[in-house]
User: What shape does this take?
Amino acid sequence: MLKKLIHEKIWIMGIVLIICSVLTLNSFYFISNVVQNIYYGIYIILSFMTIVIIRKHYSLKIHHGFFILFNLLLIYIAYITFIAVPLFLIFPSLLIFPLFCSEKSHGIFKFFSTISYTLLLIAMALLLFVRLIFTSVTLDKTVDSPNNKQMIEVYSIDNGALGGSTRVYLAEKYCYLFKKNRFIYSGDYGEGKDIVKWIDSNHVQIDRKTIDITFR
Assistant: This one.
């Protein structure tokens, strides 16, 4: 019964996944880290379920020309979201090319789509290796604004022997449940870890630097 219901509502799952992907790529998150991690888990499960169900019940085949652009787009997304978004959100997409590529495409398209997919796998492996072995992202502190509608999040990025940096985000709160992160400052490793404060609802002080968030 559950399998039949999921099968009949597969398009709803697809829409939900698209909405979740767009929100994540636009830096919308849950304020609670626990809830956010649960959301990541649900996203991964729904993604795999959707791909497997489509593969099993529909004879969907996609031209290799599409996958050339699709694989390159995934490489770009993985690169620009390397620090901000967990890479495993992109993992389910790795199944789409081998499961849905068409056998009727021209040899040139097959060649370049295979090359782009190979580059995607290499890029994902390298980024994941760097993320797990060399890069450590730590949320040092959060500071609520005077009006409690925003908060500052200070992250330390430790790249081991390669050095590190401090990244500061402005998080706009929505309904005390969601937040939208906006990058406002980057500095040396450890900078602003201890000295971060709101001057007023529009200005933040990090060490001796004053940032006007209305222009960010």
User: Anything to note?
Assistant: The CA atoms of residues 83 and 124 lie 13 Å apart. The two ends are 51 Å apart (CA to CA).
